Amino acid sequence: MTDVQLTASVVLYHSPADMVARHLQSVAKSFAHFSNVYPTASLRFFFVDNSVDEHYLRTIETLISQCHLPEGMRLELIKSSENKGYGDAHNQALEKVPSEQYVGKEDRAKDTRFHVVLNPDVYLAEDTLLLSYKCISKQQDIALISPRILDNYEAVPHVAKRYPGLRILMGRYLKSTLWAEQQQRYVYAEQDPESAFDVEMAGGCFYFCRLSALQDINGFDRAYFLYFEDFDLCERLRANSWRLRYEPTVCIQHEGGGVSGKTLRHQWYFICSAARFYSRYGWRF
C-alpha cells in the first residue's frame, strides 16, 4: 500500500470564521475520501495566521479545537509575528516539512509527498484530493495540478493562463473588450475546458503540488507581498523543466474576485507586484 504523505497550507488574514470552518470541513471530507482508498495516508494541515491579532487568533484556536478530523489528519496553527505577505506565509508552512523528505528529479517515481496550496475561500469536492493525486502520479514531470473552478457551482471557463501581456492586464482590469483576441489567447480559449492540457500559468487559489518540485525552487518568492507570487512560482517551475497541468476532473469552488473590485491598497499591491514580475521576466505588450 502506498504511504502517501500530504501537507497543506492556507493563509488567513482576518478571514471570516464561518468561511474558514466551511473550508476546513471540505478539506477534512476530501481527505476522509482519500484515506478510504489509501488507508495509511496522512495529512498535515497548516493554518498560517497573518492577522497579527490576538482576538482573531483565539477565534481560530477555538475553531480548531472544535473540529472533528478524520484519522490521519492533524492541524497546526502558525502565528506570524508580522504580516510579510501571502507567499511568505505559505513558505513558513513548507519550512515545517523536514528537508530530508526532498526527492530529486532522478527519483521522482518514488515520490509520495505532496503539498496543497489553498485559499481560505476555496471549498473542495469530496474527490478533489484523490483525483489530484491520481492525475499528478501519472507523469513524474508534472509539478502541479490546477483544477476546474466552480463559482457558485457553475464552471468558470478557461481558468488556465498564458504569460499576461500588459494589454491583457489593462483590458481585464477595465473589463474592456479591447484586444479581445489577445485576451482569448491568454485564457486558452481555443482549448476544450473538458480536456486536460499543459499550461504556462495557473491562478494560485488551489495547487496540488509535488513537494519535491516546490523544494526544488525553494517555494514562493518572498519579494511578492501579494499578487503575482503564483505566476512567478509557475515561471520558476517551468524554468526547472517541470510541467503544469490543468485537470478538469479535479473541481473546487472558489469565492474570490478580481483585483478591480479591491481596495486602493490592494490595487497598489497589484501594481507593485506586476512591476516586479515584468522587470524579472520581460515587459510584453
UniProtKB/TrEMBL annotation:
<dbReference type="InterPro" id="IPR029044">
    <property type="entry name" value="Nucleotide-diphossugar_trans"/>
</dbReference>
<protein>
    <recommendedName>
        <fullName>Glycosyltransferase 2-like domain-containing protein</fullName>
    </recommendedName>
</protein>
